[in-house]
Design a protein that fits this description.
The structure holds two protein chains of two kinds. Chain A contains eight helices and ten strands. Chain A is of the alpha/beta class. In chain A, a hairpin with a 2-residue loop joins strand 4 and strand 5. Chain B is mainly α. Chain B is globular, with a radius of gyration of 19 Å. Chain B starts with a helix and ends with a helix. Classes of the chains: A alpha/beta, B mainly alpha.
Chain lengths: 235, 260
């Protein structure tokens, strides 16, 4: 379970997270939505300890995590942009990440799933954007961590890889894991989300299921429901 | 930290630029030794090149590597690693590979020439040590500039200006101030001023070793007078190590507070 209390973060004069409180229960797929610049990535990065908050507390399973680092061994994180050291090969990078965690992995299964065998000895600098994203996904899903955080996982993927991604996410859920996702692709959200967390102006504007959101906004269509919130706020 | 260092190091020594850098020193060493046929003259020429070039390359590679590995750094940040581990690992990987290019690039020609066992061995070893120290200093300074500036262009600009200042402008200001304050006792001032610039410090250190007073210049002379040759060398070595340690400490400090 993730508990965020009174989280504040500003970059210069711009306040990105403003006294944000959030509780994410164990198990299920949670999608964080919000317009550009609403603080989705900042929130995720605060949980990962990549952003240092100005105030507030974050705890995972009742353990405070700010300024700690060992807890990250129990989180799988997919960063938004997949850029790796260009002179290392895929298998060398794989080896590095495995060495850093020292936990059992299922990399072979994922290599087969995404068809990465022909690229294993290729240098990362020579891979296409989509292939890099597949490597990125492999590195994320190969550990069996109880918390999975995906920042824009769909970018650059071909339709087949996209199908695999959805299957992977569902499988994680069935194993009782907590999956946290940010994305802008609404059809993707509709398909996989158990619960939605809608961020607006650095605060949680809405948290609940898609049905609840539709009821609240009086819109039948999910995409329109989201648009309705944004219009209401910015009218 | 060693794992990160190892990977950064292997990533870098296979890059084309490490070879170019190595090749440059190799050719330089070969040309100077075999055309000149005078080891101590070759060492002086090399010193003049090294005290300017290693800082420049260290600075450029430092900022370039910092900005290029940003996304990879983010990936490492999501792993159970301390921030200082990540940045110090990358820093040492880079500094060691650059220092390696220098030491091997110049060392091989000298070994072929037969410097081992000759009287010039100590001067030569000192030259390489100073080059390596300068690399460590300037890569650390460049890393600090990278950490402090998210804007690549700005970071690059500041890094180049820093090099230009320490390698060229500093001496100019120094000379002008010597002229202007000609009537005052400025020994202490010049002594302090020379310790504040690692490039000046390196130059003095090598010239003290070679014992060529003509090349010492004003600062060097004051230095020699103040410390004597052997103490002067120890003092300048100590100062150079301080110059390595301070920016590394600053890297750790900056890394702890930064948002990614």
């Amino acid at each position: 379970m993730i508990r965020v209390e009174g989280l504040k973060k500003s970059f210069g004069k711009l306040t990105v997270l403003d006294n944000l409180d959030l509780k994410i229960e164990k198990g299920g797929i949670f999608v964080i939505l919000g317009p550009n610049g609403s603080g989705k990535t900042t929130l995720i990065k605060s949980v990962l300890g990549m952003v240092v908050p100005n105030a507030g507390n974050i705890s995972i399973d009742n353990q405070p995590i700010l300024k700690e680092w060992q807890y990250r061994g129990n989180i799988d994180y997919l960063p938004q942009i997949a850029n790796f050291p260009s002179n290392l090969s895929v298998s060398e990078l794989l080896k590095l990440v495995k060495e850093l965690r020292d936990k059992p992995t299922r990399d072979q299964e994922l290599i087969a799933l995404f068809g990465l065998e022909p690229f294993l000895d290729k240098k990362l600098g020579n891979l296409s954007g989509g292939t890099k994203q597949k490597v990125n996904l492999m590195l994320t899903f190969m550990f069996n961590s109880p918390l999975v955080i995906l920042d824009e996982p769909t970018s650059g993927l071909d339709p087949i890889a996209m199908l695999h991604l959805k299957e992977l996410i569902r499988a994680e859920k069935e194993n009782g894991k907590t999956v946290l996702i940010t994305t802008h692709i609404m059809s993707f959200v509709e398909e996989i989300a158990d619960e939605i967390v809608f961020l607006l102006d650095g605060k949680i504007y809405f948290k609940g299921s898609i049905q609840e959101l539709q009821q609240m906004t009086g819109q039948v269509d999910f995409e329109h429901a989201i648009a309705a919130i944004l219009r209401r706020e910015h009218a | 930290m060693l794992k990160i260092m190892k990977y950064s190091f292997f990533d870098l020594i296979r890059s084309r630029w490490s070879f170019v850098y190595f090749g440059f020193y190799f050719l330089l060493g070969m040309t100077l030794l075999f055309l000149n046929n005078d080891v101590s003259k070759a060492i002086i020429t090399m010193m003049n090149i090294i005290v300017v070039l290693t800082p420049l390359i260290g600075t450029i590679f430092g900022v370039m590597y910092y900005y290029n590995s940003k996304e990879f750094t983010e990936l490492l940040m999501a792993q159970p690693l301390k921030r200082s581990t990540i940045f110090l690992g990358q820093y040492f990987g880079l500094a060691l590979s650059l220092a390696g290019s220098l030491v091997l690039g110049l060392g091989i020609p000298f070994a072929i020439y037969g410097v081992v066992g000759s009287a010039a061995l100590l001067s030569f070893a000192l030259l390489l040590a100073v080059g390596a120290l300068l690399t460590f200093i300037f890569v650390a300074l460049a890393y600090n500039i990278g950490l402090a500036n998210d804007n690549k262009i700005k970071g690059f600009g500041i890094a180049i200006l820093m090099w230009l200042f320490l390698a060229v402008v500093y001496d100019g200001i120094f000379l002008i101030s010597l002229f202007v304050f000609d009537d005052y006792p400025i020994d202490k001032f010049s002594l302090i001023a020379s310790t504040l610039n690692p490039i000046d410090l390196s130059r003095i250190l090598i010239i003290l070793e070679l014992d060529i007073s003509v090349l010492l210049g004003y600062t060097g002379a004051v230095f020699q007078q103040f410390f004597g040759t052997s103490l002067g060398m120890i003092a300048s070595f100590g100062l150079l190590f301080t110059w390595v340690a301070l920016p590394i400490g600053l890297i750790v400090r900056q890394a702890k507070r930064k948002d990614f």
